[in-house]
Amino acid sequence: MKSSELHQFYKKSQGERLEIIKQFAELGETDIETLKKTGAMDFGIADRMSENVIGTQQLPLGIAANFIINGKERLLPMSVEEPSIIAAASKIAGIARKTGGFAAEADPPIMIGQIQLLKVKDFAKAKKGILKKKKELLEKANTFDPVLVKSGGGARDIELREVKSRRGKMLVAHLLVDCGDAMGANAVNGMAETIAGDMARIAGGEQRLFIISNLAVHRKARARVVITPQALEESFAGKGTGLGGAEMIERILDVYELAAADRFRAATHNKGIMNAIDAIAVACGQDWRALESGAHSFAAFGREYGPLTKYCKDKKGNLAGEIELPIAVGLVGGAVKTSPVAQVALKILGAKSAEELAMAMACAGLAENLGSLREIAVRGIRHGHMELHAKNIAVIAGAQGKEIDAVAERISKEGNIKVDRAKEILEETREGK
Fold first, then answer.
1. More confident of the two residues 387 and 192
2. Domain boundary at 169, 188, 213, which?
3. Which of 31, 178, 287, 403 is catalytic?
């Protein structure tokens, strides 16, 4: 039976790691060859993906292990330069396995296309007229993308809002579109443009903006996890914390409460969540800028800016965590179809729909956030972060090949993870001391 629980995966060679992933995700030889290419993306592909291309910028592609999501074993590809992100998510996923892993769900893929109507004289009459013609408007909107409609998606509804601004009051229509397995920006923008003129005529006003909104409140994903005091305590075995699992949970809740009460902390708290979500987005060819915009906007939607996660103790004294945020992603269109690595990453993750990808991202965000809270509350964030950063410090100091691991191990054991100390150790190593 396949398992995402990968013991000491970080100690294995690239070939050994790829063989494990190949078996887990049932990858073909072409997929493996794509992953082996650590050089730059083919210029022809890069030039078609962006504008004024002169080269490419690379990021490591890693695997967050140990995840069970809705009873299924999952390996989550993450493209990110910070090792602690993958390590923290994998650690929490490993702890969560003892209580069955993560439970997740996602809303249908409904996106909002906004249509701005100005110089409307009678708002009540305008709204009544648009809603009276709603069926015809939706039918016309759907003519823009018959392929989407044929696959089960398309324009579903129209909502109307009166918005006050410094330049006067305006009528804003929300065109709700089921985007299927696409993120949906092109379809939504096109459908909104298709009916904007008709809406303006019905409203007796003028059209201006017609564009997608990244505050995808109809397309949220949620995840939940339960961690026992015993599992939490065992996760620090040999670390000499002197704390029991119950005390660790109390400390985590203390740290969380600052995010719940203070916007300055909430901003960093949510940044940690997006560390993992963005890493999966980059690996799988998703629009991580849209995800960032939607997440932080949702954190202030109808309230003062606050955390995207919630934590409490359940009746058994376990730590219960949950997350909810908009996650608009797709399996078709965009970089997904032009980036060979993104296609392989999606095979590894095993998502069969946009909703499954969104659920995996929500679980990763929750795991990453809880991993950060765990470290902050028990040892301090710098301790674990710098331990994982030791190899980077060794490289900066000039270490090469096997020297990197040797220098990193020593500065970690000494607790002196600094470039000047790494240089001293490297010099001693080369002199044979």
1. 192
2. 213
3. 287
Torsion, Cα of 98, 101, 103, 106 (10° steps): 170
Same domain, 197 and 100: no
Q: Summarize the confidence of residues 362-387 as an average pLDDT.
A: 85
Q: Is 82 a catalytic residue?
A: yes
Question: Given 350, 379, 408, which residue is the final one in a domain?
Answer: 379
Give pLDDT, residue 83: 85
| In a shared domain, residues 55 and 134 | no
Indicate whether 70 pLDDT > 90.
Answer: yes
Q: What's the rounded Cα separation, in Å, for the pair 165 and 13?
A: 59
Helix (H) or strand (E) holding 171: strand 168-178
Determine which one of 22, 271, 347, 383 is catalytic. 271
228 and 366 share one domain: yes
> Which pTM was predicted?
0.90
pLDDT mean over 237-251: 91
**218 assigned to active site:** no
Q: Which position among 296, 385, 389, 391 bears the catalytic label?
A: 385
Q: Which of 82, 105, 409, 424 is catalytic?
A: 82
| Amino acid in the structure at residue 292 | E
The tens digit of pLDDT for each residue in 302-330 reads 999 999 999 999 999 999 999 999 999 99
Residues 256 and 352 in one domain: yes
Is position 98 annotated as part of the catalytic site? Answer: no
Both 206 and 223 in a single domain?
A: no
Among this protein's residues, is 271 annotated catalytic? yes
CATH number for the domain that contains residue 168: 3.30.70.420
Residue 164 lies in a domain: yes
Domain total for the chain? 3
The confidence score (pLDDT) of residue 49 equals 82
The domain containing residue 359 runs over which residues? 9-107+219-379
Pick the range with the lowest mean pLDDT from 40-44, 74-78, 136-140.
Answer: 40-44
Q: Which residues contact residue 22 at a Cβ distance below 8 angstroms, ignoring those fewer than 6 apart?
A: 31, 32
Q: Are residues 290 and 392 in the same domain?
A: no
- Asked if residue 48 has pLDDT above 70, the reply is yes
Question: Which long-range CB contacts under 8 A does 74-77 form with residues at least 24 apart?
Answer: 74/4, 74/349, 74/350, 74/360, 74/363, 75/4, 75/6, 75/21, 75/24, 75/25, 75/348, 75/349, 75/350, 76/280, 76/349, 76/360, 76/364, 77/280, 77/283, 77/284, 77/345, 77/348, 77/349
